[in-house]
TrEMBL record:
Domain of life assignment: Bacteria
Pfam annotation, one family: SpoU_sub_bind
GO cellular component terms, semicolon-separated: cytosol
GO biological process terms, semicolon-separated: methylation; RNA processing
Record-given protein name: 23S rRNA (Guanosine(2251)-2'-O)-methyltransferase RlmB
Entries under NCBIfam families matching the protein: rRNA_methyl_3 (TIGR00186)
Key word Cell cycle present: no
Source organism phylogeny: Bacteria, Pseudomonadati, Bacteroidota, Cytophagia, Cytophagales
Domain RNA 2-O ribose methyltransferase substrate binding, chain residue ranges per copy: 26-100
Keywords (A to Z) from UniProt: Methyltransferase, Transferase
UniProt source species: Flammeovirga pectinis
GO MF, one annotated term: RNA binding
PANTHER family cross-referenced by the UniProt entry: 23S RRNA (GUANOSINE-2'-O-)-METHYLTRANSFERASE RLMB
Length: 269
């Protein structure tokens, strides 16, 4: 329905569409990628030349599969368009941030006397939407964004730029299984609020003053049914116009700042 943590030098990016992947986002060559996988390095995805019979590349493919990294067999011309360097038939896409562990972030929030607020994104694949959501979440003081390893927007320099640098400040947790990740949030003491048109209660009547994980779904088909079944509460944004859906970035902003508003009002009592 709805729709490393490293410093980035924004001056090197312009506002025109990129024709090539920025070299800071990729790693190429058999040995560097093999060693990185052995060391447990996380990659967004791997491109391997389609007609390769190289044994080391075959081993890289197996290692990536074991690590849950998406691997695509592509024509060599596609690799050449990404980089003119000697890629040796394999290119890895490197995330622009360091991923966090949810349990560490939640524990730190509780220890600091905060009421954790987590945003969970189910299959939000558009990079611009993701960047805008990250910016909103960071501005609202959310503690964490949780995304699935597969079926989520690629977090490269485009996402960092779209977030206006917010992804350098708000922790992001990437999990193999989103359902399991949500169960672990519940085990940590957070209620799970799924934002969906299936909700029986308007958002403004859902208590989010307590530790909360807000789940937002994809533009196409919203939140997965198996995740909705995990929800402690279902909330809907009341619609007064003829259009009955919102862009996920806009919807996420409404929900996060409503949680923020409730907590600020409670603190003033």
């Amino acid at each position: 329905m709805y729709d490393d943590k490293r410093k980035v030098n924004y001056t090197k990016y312009n506002t025109t569409p990129r024709q090539k992947t920025n070299s800071a986002d990729i790693m190429y060559g058999i040995q560097p990628i093999f060693e990185a996988l052995e060391a447990g390095k996380e990659f967004e995805k791997l491109f391997i030349t389609r007609d390769s019979s190289n044994e080391q590349i075959a081993e890289i493919h197996k290692m990536a599969n074991r690590a849950g990294i998406v691997v695509s067999r592509v024509p060599v011309e596609k690799l050449q368009r990404i980089t003119s360097k000697n890629h040796q038939g394999v290119i890895a896409f490197v995330p622009a941030i360091d991923y966090a562990k949810a349990e560490n972030v939640i524990a730190a929030a509780f220890e600091a006397g905060k009421t954790p607020l987590v945003l969970v994104l189910d299959r939000v694949t558009d990079v611009r939407n993701f960047g805008a959501i990250a910016r909103t979440a960071e501005c609202a003081g959310a503690d964490l964004i949780m995304i699935p390893k597969k079926g989520a927007a690629q977090i490269g320099s485009d996402a960092v730029r779209t977030s206006a640098g917010a992804l350098n400040h708000i922790p992001v947790c990437r999990v193999d299984n989103l359902k399991q990740g949500i169960l672990e949030l519940q085990d940590s003491g957070l209620q799970v609020v799924c934002c969906t048109e299936k909700g029986s209660k308007d958002l403004y009547y859902v208590d989010m003053e307590i530790p909360t994980a807000v789940v937002m779904g994809s533009e196409e088909d919203g939140i997965s049914p198996d995740i909705i079944h995990l929800a402690d509460k279902l909330a809907k944004i009341p619609m007064l116009g003829k259009v009955n859906s919102l862009n996920v970035g806009v919807a996420a902003g409404i929900v996060i700042f409503e949680a923020n508003r409730q907590r600020m009002m409670s603190a003033q009592k």
